[in-house]
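Final report, results section. Input specification for complex C-07:
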Amino acid sequence: MVSIVPLWILFLTFLSALLLGSLPQCRAMSFYDLEAVNIDGYRVKLSAYKGKVTLVVNVASKCGLTDRTYKELVSVRESYARRGFEVLAFPCNQFHDQEPDSNADIKGFARSYNVTFPLFAKTTVKRPMCTHDPSANSLLCGPTSEECCAFNNQIYEYLMSISNKPVEWNFAKFLIGRDGGLIKRYQPVEGPRTFTREIERALASADTGDGDGDGDGDGDGDGDGDEDDMSHGSSDGGSNPTTESFSDEM
Ligand SMILES: *[C@@H]1O[C@H](CO)[C@@H](O)[C@H](O)[C@H]1NC(C)=O
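Structure output:
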C-alpha cells in the first residue's frame, strides 16, 4: 500500500502534465494566434505584434476618406510607434470598388503617403450575407462574385466573431489592446486623430480588461444608417473619384 501511493502521485503528475500540455489547443483562438498574407505575398504571424497596441483598418485608395485617413494614420502611427503602437492595414475592394488596383499598385500608392506600417494583401472584410445589402454593393458583390463569397483572411473572420456588426465601409477601425483584446471600434469617418487619447490609454495599460470592449462604435447606434454616414464622409473628403472607378471591369 505504502509503495503504491508514490505511483499514483507519479501518474497524476503525468496526467496533469498531459492536460496542461494540450491546453493551448483547447483555448479559444486569440488575435495573436492568427496570420495573414502581407502585400508582398508572405505569410505573417500576428504574434509578431504581441504586446503592442494595434489599429486594424481596411483601406482603399479611391475613397473620399482616403487622403485624410492615410495622412492621419501615418502621423498617429509616427507619434506612438515608439511606445508600441502599430497600424495593420488591409486593402479591400468590397466597398464601391474603391480599391480596384493590384497589390503592387496599392503599395506604391501607400508609399506616396510615406506609409511605414504593415500593409497586407488585398482581402475581404465582409461576410457573404452582407452582399445582399440593398446598398450599392449589391452590384459588385452578387452571389457569384468570387471576391465576396467568403472571408479569405483569418483576421476579419476573427474580428467579426468577436464584434457585433459588419465592417461599414472603407477605413473601419478596430483598436486592439496589448493583450489582443478588442478595445473599441471606430467608424470610417472617425479619423485616428480623434481618438489618440484612447490610443494613449491603451498604450499605458498592460491589459485592456476585455470586459469593457463591446466592439461597438460609440456613435448614434444606428446600425443601419451607415450608408448615410458614408455619403456624408465622402463629401467631407473633397473630390471623390468613386464614379470613375466604376468603369473598371469587375
Ligand atoms: C513624404 O516624405 C517626403 C520626404 O520627407 C516629403 O517630402 C513628403 O511631403 C511626404 N509626403 C507626404 C504625403 O506626407
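The pocket of 2-acetamido-2-deoxy-beta-D-glucopyranose is lined by residues 113-114 (CB under 6 Å). The domain at 31-205 is CATH 3.40.30.10 (Glutaredoxin). This concludes the modelling results for the funded period.
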